[in-house]
Amino acid sequence: MFPLEGRGIWAFRSRVTHRSRPVDVRAYVRADDLDLLYAQDVSCAAGVGRTQFGEGRVFPVNPARNPSPEVVRLSGFADDGGRLVTAQVTLVPAGGTAVRSARHDFRREPTDSGFEEVCAFHHMTTAVRFFDELLGPDLFTDRPFLPLRVRVQDRAVRARVGVFLPGLATIALADGQLPAARSGDICIHEFAHAVVHRIARLDDEFASPVAAGLNEGFGDYAQATVYDDPRFGDWARQQPNRARNCADPTLRLPADPSDRYEVGAAWAALLWDLRSSLGRGIADAIAFHALHFLDAHCDYQDAREALHLADLALFRTRRAGRHRTEIDRVFDGRT
How many domains does the chain have? Predict the structure, then answer.
């Protein structure tokens, strides 16, 4: 029975599909003369055609840990021209034309043009998914996202490997014999800087030395927890054991915080200790929600308190956070 003008009539329910196109039409026709009463392509209603997947060949972490590139699924496309663009990031080369594929087939070889863009796109969208799940989609509703520009094969930053440029809302990744775009640990580290800037501005021009160090530490820890590996920069710096390592038991928050990388390495190690104690999901939530309680003038005591406040906000137990004891233990262990 089909409702029509206040009464019910007999109708046939039909379905039409297409073997090679995303078409799934559900329709109703009159039982007596087969006149069309109603039709809808439910494949469109379900989002097929809007949610598109692609393929790309990448080094899943970096060439040191994955000697051969692998084919992975790409997603999040927000550009009908077949470019590597999502709502959060857009990939561009430092020179030349951005790679395109109308069918989102980006299975290129390392010697092919555009390979670095594909690698960086995969690593950056991995970071987007991590932080979106952890901090929510509102993170990406203001600069530097809208979207964040990721520039690969940039010779101007070769000495620094990768750099986040807040004023330009851009991440620049170096070219050379060891292109930074191939290294997921570098990409996620720099993406984390964009997240830190969005929430806490620890990279401000007049930030305290501790704030600048925490900024580096959050970057180190982000890539370590995403890849479940405490090493950082092992391929980009050609140091198999790492350029920095969150699991290094000798690291301590320095009394003199003038070296931001020294502070950052120790802060990442402290967060890694918390992860080892509480588990990945709990530690990640506390660590990155602590950003909401930090600012550009913070010191070590502020950092400890930020972890406590994040714990209290997320895992309240009476008047304290559920993991206060563990936070103090790992903090004291790195001071």
Answer: 3
pLDDT tens-digit map of 136-184 = 999 999 999 999 999 999 999 999 999 999 999 999 999 999 999 999 9
Domain range for 106 is 54-199
Distance, C-alpha 310 to centroid of its chain: 21
d(CA 269, CA 287): 12
Query: Could you tell me if 250 and 227 lie in one domain?
Result: yes
Same domain, 64 and 192: yes
Residue 20 lies in a domain: yes
Quote the CA–CA distance of 272 and 274 in Å, as a whole number: 5
Q: Beta strands 54-58 and 105-106: pairing type?
A: parallel
Whether 204 is in a domain gets the answer no
Does residue 216 sit within a domain?
yes
Q: Are strands 170-174 and 148-154 parallel, antiparallel or unpaired?
A: parallel
Do 157 and 79 share a structural domain?
Answer: yes
DSSP per-residue string spanning 22-43: S-EEEEEEETTT--EEEEEEHH
Q: Is residue 220 part of a domain?
A: yes
Q: Are residues 98 and 153 in the same domain?
A: yes
Sign (positive or negative) of CA dihedral 245, 261, 129, 66: negative
Closest CA to 11 of 27, 22, 24, 25: 27
Domain boundary among 199, 228, 246: 199
Report the amino acid identity of residue 220: D
Distances from the Cα of 6 to the Cα of 9, 34, 222, angstroms: 10, 20, 60
pLDDT at 320 over 90: no
Q: What is the pLDDT of residue 47?
A: 46
* pLDDT-above-90 percentage for the chain: 80
User: Cβ(223)–Cβ(271) under 8 Å?
Assistant: no
The predicted-structure confidence for 194-210, as pLDDT tens digits, reads as follows 999 999 999 999 999 99
Measure CA 299 to chain center: 27
pLDDT digits (tens, 9 = 90+) for 72-108: 999 999 987 899 999 999 999 999 999 999 999 999 9
Same domain, 161 and 251: no
The sign of the torsion formed by the CA atoms of 38, 42, 44, 45 equals positive
